[in-house]
Amino acid sequence: MVYLVFLLALGLRLINLNQSLWLDEAVQAITAQRSFSYIFQEITGDFHPPLYHFLMHFWVRLFGSSEIALRMPSVLFGVGTVWLIYLIVNKLTGLRVKGLITAMFMATAPFHVYYSQEARMYSLVTFLAAASMYYFIRVNELTGLRVNGFMGLRVCGLKEYFLYFVFTGLAVYVDYFGFLILSAQSLILFWQKKYKFLVHCSLFIVLIYLPWLPMFIKQLQEGMAATAALPQWGRLVNLSFFKALPLTFIKFALGRITIFNKLIYAIVASFLFLVYGGLIFNSKFKIQNVKLKFKVQKFSTGEIVVFSWLLVPVVLAWGLSLFVPNYQPFRLLLVLPAFYILLALGTFSFKNKSLKVVSIAFVLVVNLVSLFAYYTNPYFQREDWKSLTAFLEKQKNAVVILPSNTSDWPIKYYDTGNNLKLVYGSEGIKSVNELTGLRVNGLKSEVNELFYIRYLVPLFDPNEKILKELESQGFIKTKEFSFNQIMVWKYVKS
């Protein structure tokens, strides 16, 4: 039965896998195609550790750089995460059926499916975080802790220590948010008074990160420079403080879809919060019957591990967003397994079999309905640079304007023949200023028709200087086109 769940997870992650790359994926693709040394040039502005870039550099040389090839590692790591969640719940409960249900939840999780289809590091770091947590639990056995909640334990050996350190080290070299998982584990060890293991973990991370520290400092400097040059940057990459936590819950539950009617959206979100919150609450405080009589239980170490896995990274990221504007729900994908573990354990805490079945079915239905909306509505999928580039290539002698040359990666990926003439409002990480590029490099007297891709205009051209320049040169907007949230305006000379 469990193999059917893994096949389901794989199948759901293969649907629409060839959809268009969006900006960050195109950057990843082109970086992977270039030389190994180029990774260190590009990564200064990416603010991620290098390991995923290394992986993709060698991957594209073996399997090519099509959309499917680029995304296949994320698919495989996504399925691998489902397998790890099955192992973790089996370890914590000793009951395979609980592991199976949790694996089904994770296999159909819309937020996880979405990022298992993205050629970025989020699926990989989630897999590594789950593996780190699995071996963290195993190593906890070795340090002598045996409490209620862990069933069928056996003494671990050197292999468990080794694999824990390997997966933890890989996680923090794939994504800086991997340190949040390490923070949760450190808090658990401190609570358990396992100071020796805590010191070992700290020394290990310090030693393996020393070689990367100079590049990390350089990335911080680049990030601060970008924020100074583009005042809107912080708002683009960071949710508002009070909106962050509610939206994280909704994304965890529904994925990347939305409901356009705000009233219905609020009702659905509130209902899900009550149901899912109740299930997570129930995973600790067992409901005895439908009259809501609670039996409070002592927290086991296994439960503390899972709750810490979910809550500590979210709270830390939320607090840090006040100082480093970088909070987005997808960056916390690595805690999603804990979210579904608690949901699954909450469903099994019902003594009433009917309530148990209904609650399991409810979570699965929410997941599948959300996935159906994602699969069938292109609006919920990625920006359609593929169709946009094909459209522009059909226009004779098309001149294409972008607010910044930092946004042209998808066009370069799809315009393999370099057929399009691109003109930029600004070069590098800065806002549109003098518009010399428009005047000198593209809009000469013989240009009578052009297409303005209004991508990240609030970031690079908040004062609409490009529009004013086009009007001053006698251009009039005649048509608007949309390629899944990428607006393109056609201009002709009057």
Can you walk me through this structure?
It contains 23 helices and 7 strands. The protein is of the alpha/beta class and 494 residues long. It has 2 domains: 2-380, no CATH class; 385-493. Strands 4-3-5-7-6 form a 5-stranded mixed sheet. The protein has a two-stranded antiparallel sheet with strand order 1-2. α2 (23-33) crosses α4, α10 packs antiparallel against α11 (195-209) and α16 crosses α17. The N and C termini lie far apart (67 Å).
Task: Fill in the keyword field for this structure.
single chain; five-stranded mixed sheet; alpha/beta; 62% helix; two-stranded antiparallel ribbon; 494 residues
